[in-house]
Specification:
Strand content: 35-45%
Shape: globular
Helix content: 10-25%
Structural class: mainly beta
Radius of gyration: 25 Å
Length: 479
């Protein structure tokens, strides 16, 4: 009998094991055994065996917490906050990493939020002003963040890089001559890639910490999508989709084409450490060929799989954050599809959004999707049913979640709408034009007061916010 396997169904089997004999009782109470079981199930991976006096109880608490978190997700139990910056005017782009959110605005300002601490004051990242930078700041085009860096690209071709360790001033700044079409930041490394015109530039610090241009690639067409391959040793590797060509850009082979079919543009792209997945728009109406998701091996440059069978375009794909051998996509035909990379057919197809799917992510049991109509939907993958949904104005352009939190962003397509400001000299835009970021927290460690909506948590002695040029009869209050 496999004793360890029997303990996996604890607490039932552990109660039986310690009644078999004295030796079995000693084994059932062995701390090393319970510590290894806890590690094998993915709990408390950064701890040592001396950190807990009873690892059986620690495993029990971890399992109970996971069950409670799953229940909270399914029933939408937890706290929700709106991350807003009124004087930033209109939201341009949002990105997040491990609960830290970065947002860029039409005012040219870039702001951070750390949703892991609710009393955190969000700093504004200062741009690095050049000698000819007098006047209003250009709009922010793209923002990206990882565990150590934050990056913003502006409409005038400027890129600013901040270190999250060293304050609000940029540690690096460089310039393109034309508007930036795509921006990528390494998931763990300090590497930035940008595409402007027919040029892709890769920047990273050297051994002494000084930033420099690592590689510059010249390509034939304008880039639509850009990703840095994670977990690469040595020189960085970049995957760029330029209309109907997908490039694999690396120092050893700078002009390598991964995929190219004339007249079949790439509609979405994502990469993992060894593979790239992208949607291709075919001549379906002419040659009876459906639109598909192609999966390529980045080491052999071979096409591993063709997935999907849709007459509409695939609009988003998530490979990097999906479970092993899994992939989730969104399509203009309003459906979310989950694929097993070992098969060609989809495991499930969910009718999700009326105007098409714009963002999607999955884990081992749930799917979170965002649509062009502004809906965020949470799905039970096994049952194929919708658990709950939330709506806000503007399309959902960013979705990110982990075991206990969810970040979504509704970003307007129109950055200069007519009548956005109340007056010509107003510092903000009307609420309906701004866009919004939501932070959901499903952790069981939430205090009761933190489960109350932010609008109900304000105090009358706070003087915060912006008065929208309205003469208030009483001191400003956020209720």
């Amino acid at each position: 009998m496999n004793f360890t396997h029997g303990l996996r169904t604890w607490p039932l089997n552990s109660r039986l094991c310690d009644k078999v004999s004295r030796t079995w009782k000693v084994l059932a109470e062995d701390e090393v055994l319970w510590y290894r079981l806890c590690q094998q199930e993915g709990y408390l991976l950064d701890t040592s065996i001396s950190d807990h006096s009873c690892w059986k109880l620690a495993l029990k608490n971890c399992r109970a917490r996971e069950r409670t978190l799953k229940t909270n997700w399914k029933n939408r139990i937890g706290a929700v906050s709106q991350l807003q910056y009124e004087v930033g005017k209109i939201l341009c782009d949002v990105h997040s990493c491990d609960g830290v959110v970065i947002a860029g605005y039409t005012s040219g300002e870039v702001r951070l939020w750390d949703t892991r601490t609710w009393d955190y004051t969000a700093p504004i990242l200062e741009p690095m002003h050049g000698p000819g930078d007098a006047g209003p700041q250009p709009h922010v085009s793209f923002v990206r963040i990882n565990s150590s860096l934050a990056v913003a690209a502006y409409e005038d071709g400027t890129i600013s890089v901040w270190s999250l360790m060293f304050g609000r001033e940029p540690v690096h700044r460089y310039q393109h001559n034309q508007r930036i079409q795509a921006l990528a930041l390494g998931s763990e490394s300090a590497t930035v890639a940008t595409a402007s015109g027919f040029e892709v530039k890769v920047e990273s610090p050297n051994d002494r910490g000084f930033w420099q241009t690592t590689e510059t690639f010249e390509i034939q067409k304008l880039v639509n999508f850009l990703n840095l391959v994670p977990d690469v040793t040595g020189s960085p590797v970049t995957v760029a989709a330029a209309e109907d060509i997908v490039y694999l850009l690396k120092a050893q082979d700078p002009g390598k084409i991964l995929h190219s079919v004339y007249g079949q543009p790439v509609t979405c792209l994502d990469v993992s450490a060894h593979e790239a997945a992208f949607g291709v728009k075919t001549f379906g109406w002419l040659l009876n060929e459906p639109n598909q998701i192609l999966l390529y091996n980045l080491e052999t440059s071979q096409c591993l799989k063709k997935m999907g069978n849709s007459i509409s375009d695939f609009t988003c794909v998530n490979l990097h954050n999906s479970p092993p051998n899994m992939l989730v996509t969104g399509n203009k035909d309003r459906r979310v599809r989950v694929f097993d990379l070992r098969k060609s057919e989809s495991l499930c197809s969910l009718y999700a959004h009326q105007l098409g799917v714009s963002a999607v992510q999955m884990d081992d049991w749930k799917i979170v999707s965002g649509g062009e109509e502004g809906l965020v939907c949470v799905w039970d993958q096994r049952m194929g049913t919708k658990l709950w949904e939330m709506h806000a104005r503007h399309p959902v352009r960013h979705v990110w979640f982990n075991s206990h939190s969810l970040i979504t962003a509704n970003i307007p397509d129109e950055k200069t709408p007519r009548g956005a400001s109340i007056t010509d000299d107003d510092l903000t835009a009307h609420r309906k034009h701004r866009g919004i970021i939501y932070a959901y927290e499903f952790s069981v460690d939430q205090l009761a007061v933190e489960s109350v909506l932010p609008i109900c948590r304000s105090s009358y002695d706070e003087v915060t916010g912006y008065n929208y040029n309205i003469g208030l009869a009483v001191p400003y209050d956020i209720i």
